[in-house]
Amino acid sequence: MVWLCSLKLWDMLTRRSLTYLVGLIRELHQSRYFWQKPSGH
After folding, report:
1. Domain of life here (predicted)?
2. Is the dihedral of CA 30, 32, 38, 41 positive or negative?
3. What is the pTM of this model?
4. What is the pLDDT of residues 6-40, one digit of tens each?
5. How far apart, in Å, do the first and last CA atoms of the chain sit?
6. Nearest to 18 by CA among 8, 10, 30
7. Helix (H) / strand (E) containing 18
């Protein structure tokens, strides 16, 4: 029972950290895209 609870907690934590990482990477890609755009417009 204890192992199951800890596994649930671990799953929740890993999911949260993964979504956070994905969001961070997306923001980085967006900023990189913005920087690569020609500033002449």
Report:
1. Eukaryota
2. positive
3. 0.56
4. 999 999 999 999 999 999 999 998 888 777 776 66
5. 61
6. 10
7. helix 2-36
